[in-house]
Write a structure and sequence with these properties.
The complex is a heterodimer of chains A (120) and B (160).
Chain A: H1 4-12, E1 17-24, E2 30-33, H2 47-67, E3 76-80, E4 83-90, E5 93-99, H3 105-119
Antiparallel strand pairs in A: 1-2, 1-5, 3-4, 4-5
Helix pairs in contact in A: 1-3
Chain B: E1 5-6, H1 12-21, E2 26-30, E3 36-40, H2 45-70, E4 76-80, E5 85-93, E6 96-104, H3 110-126, H4 142-154
Antiparallel strand pairs in B: 1-3, 2-3, 2-6, 4-5, 5-6
The chains are: A alpha+beta (120), B alpha+beta (160).
Chain lengths: 120, 160
């Protein structure tokens, strides 16, 4: 099983990934996180909010998927004006990334799912 | 879920927002002395009375425990039960300190409660208690203060 700091390091080095985090699936608290790429020190740190709300959204998506009899969601992507939030579940944790709009989402998706399997 | 009932009107809006945003089942805002300021999720004054007394005592104990173990008081407490979880923390409005205790289940999470409680703290910091200085400090009449605040929340005894 891969250690969580390695998972975060791998994901954060992908082109377009602004921040990568391992977050508790039940409590929404950050377990491991990368630094924010290109972060402005004067701006509010978005990691705690993104982690908590990303994990919360994933739990709701899981319920919606279950209600639709589709099973566990494989990958969740929230597309916003200035980028994406991607979430993948891995047992007791979820992997959360903030991604720029021009990132290679296919690569991000593939690597997040691979990393999720490595810690499951 | 019911709207908050408050003994002091200025906390109604921020307390209601916290309840909705953090998806809390119930909660009480109180003075460290145990006097209730506002509550939601409870219909029984006796429950609020017990919670105020216990929260006040837990706050005093955890602060002292923090001082003993870590050299500084513990200001936030979280207890995860099998189905429900309890979150306790302090906040301030002006120079007046308050305690908050909230209960949530799997519809929320500690992370979500923490971020919305931080917003609640910021909102409260900008407000001023309407009744500041009217006996909010410890008077020694713990039971009397508690009963007066419960009367304000649920109506006088006999009409509850």
């Amino acid at each position: 099983m891969k250690i969580l700091s390695q998972v975060v390091a791998t994901l954060s080095h992908l082109p377009g990934v602004v921040v990568a985090m391992v977050v508790g699936a039940n409590d929404g608290l950050i377990v491991e996180t990368s630094a924010i790429k290109g972060g402005n020190p004067d701006e509010k740190d978005p990691r705690k909010h993104t982690a908590a709300l990303g994990a919360y959204l994933y739990s709701k998506a899981t319920r919606a998927s279950d209600a639709a009899r589709l099973g566990t969601p494989a990958f969740m992507r929230l597309e916003a004006e200035q980028g994406h939030i991607c979430v993948v579940g891995a047992r007791d944790v979820v992997l959360v990334t903030i991604v720029t709009p021009d990132a290679n989402l296919g690569r991000v998706r593939l690597d997040m799912m691979t990393e999720a399997r490595s810690i499951s | 879920m019911t709207d908050p009932t408050v003994a002091e009107g200025w906390v109604a809006a921020p307390l209601g927002r916290l309840k909705d945003d953090a998806r809390l089942l119930s909660g009480v805002l109180l003075y460290p002395t145990g006097r209730a300021v506002g509550q939601f999720g409870f219909s029984n004054a006796a429950d609020v009375m017990s919670i105020c007394a216990l929260t006040s005592a837990i706050n005093a104990s955890s602060r002292e425990l923090g001082r003993q173990l870590d050299g500084k008081p513990f200001y936030e407490t979280h207890h995860a039960g099998a189905d429900r979880q309890v979150f306790m923390a302090r906040c301030a409005a002006g120079s007046q300190e308050f305690l908050f205790v909230g209960v949530f289940d799997r519809e929320s999470s500690l992370g979500v409660v923490e971020i919305y409680f931080a917003e609640f703290q910021k909102t409260l910091e900008k407000l001023r208690p309407e009744t500041q200085g009217t006996g909010v400090g410890p008077t020694g009449d713990f039971e009397g203060e508690l009963n007066r605040s419960l009367d304000a929340l649920f109506g006088p005894l006999g009409k509850r």
